[in-house]
Amino acid sequence: MGEVEVVVGHQERVTLRAGDVFLKVDSDQTRTDVEVEAMGLAPIPTPEILWRRPPVLALAALPGRALGRLGEPSTASPAAWAAAGAAVRMLHDAPLPPWPGRRLDEIAARLDGECEWLVANDVLPTELVTRNRLVAEAALRPWTPVFIHGDLQIVHVFVDGDEVTGVLDWSEASQGDALYDLAILTLGHEERLGDVVAGYGTEVDLDVIRAWWSLRSLLAIRWLVEHGFDPFAPGCEVDVLRARM
Q1: Can you give the residue ranges of every domain in the chain?
Q2: Which of 96, 199, 211, 227 could form a disulfide with 82 if both were Cys (CB 3.0 to 4.6 A apart)?
Q3: CA-CA distance, 207 to 65, in Å (whole number)?
Q4: What is the pLDDT of residue 131?
C-alpha cells in the first residue's frame, strides 16, 4: 500500500491522497452537498465521484497537473491558460444552479469588517488597506448572475498540455459575478490575464477584475493566518495588495 499524503488540512476540512484517490473530509456537509450537485451540473470536466460516506467524499484523481500555484511562476503554456478561460466561459454560459450566491450587501459588510480587523490588529499598514479598499469598490456593483465556481484558484484547474482535464473543489459554486471567477483564476498571475481573457472570448472590464483581486485578498488574509497559511509569502495575497499601490 502506498503512502497517504495530506494535500491540505485545516480546522474546517482535510484532503488526503491515497494513490489515485482523494478523500475529502469536511466538517460542514452542506459544503459537500453543494460540491456534489455542482459537479453534476457543470458542463466542464470534473473529478469522478467514487463514493460518499459522510463526512468523507472520495474522488478520482484528475489527469495532468495543476495550472500553477499562487506564489510560484506557472510553467503552463499561454494556450493552456486560454483553454482555462474557455472552460470558464462554458461554465458561465450554463444554466444557473438552483441556489443563490452571496448578496452584494453581505460582501460589502464583510469587506468593511476585515479591513477594520487588519488595521486594528496591525496586520497591514493603514495606507495599504485603505488604498485596496478603494480599488475594491469597483467590484461592488450590480452584476448579472452566472454559474460560478466560486473558488477558481489555479491549483484547482488541471491541464494536460494545452487541454483542461478537470476542475476541482466546487463547494463554493453558486450564482455570482463572472468576473470574480476570472479574477480568482488570475490572482497573483496578472501577466496571464490576457491569455485567460482571450480564451474567455468576450470583452471584460479589467478594472473590475483588478478590484476583485484586492477584495479577495483583503477578505482572505485573516482566514489564512488563523488556519496556518502565509499570505505574506512572495507572490501571495499581501504582494497582490502591494501591487495596487
Answers
A1: 62-242
A2: 199
A3: 30
A4: 98
Q: pLDDT for 111-144, tens place per residue?
A: 999 999 999 999 999 999 999 999 999 999 999 9
Quick one: pLDDT at residue 10? 79
Which stretches of the chain score pLDDT less than 70? 1-2
* Grid coordinates of 224: 489564512
Contacts of 18 (CB under 8 A, 6+ apart): 1, 2, 4, 5
pLDDT tens for 209-238 read 999 999 999 999 999 999 989 999 999 999
Contact 137, 51 (CB under 8 A): no
Q: What is the distance between the alpha carbons of residues 38 and 35, in angstroms, rounded to a whole number?
A: 5
Q: Is 196 exposed, middle or buried (0-12, 13-18, 19+ CB in 10 A)?
A: buried
String of DSSP letters for 158-194: EEETTEEEEE---TT-EEE-HHHHHHHHHTT-GGGHH
Q: What stretches of the chain show up as alpha helix (H) in DSSP?
A: 29-41, 78-92, 104-120, 126-136, 178-186, 193-200, 206-226, 237-242
- Cα dihedral 21, 184, 80, 74 sign: negative
Q: Which amino acid is at 90?
A: M
Q: What is the CATH number of domain 62-242?
A: 3.90.1200.10
The confidence score (pLDDT) of residue 27 equals 86
Q: Which residues of 108-119 are buried (b: 16+ CB within 10 A; e: fewer)?
A: eeebeebbeebb
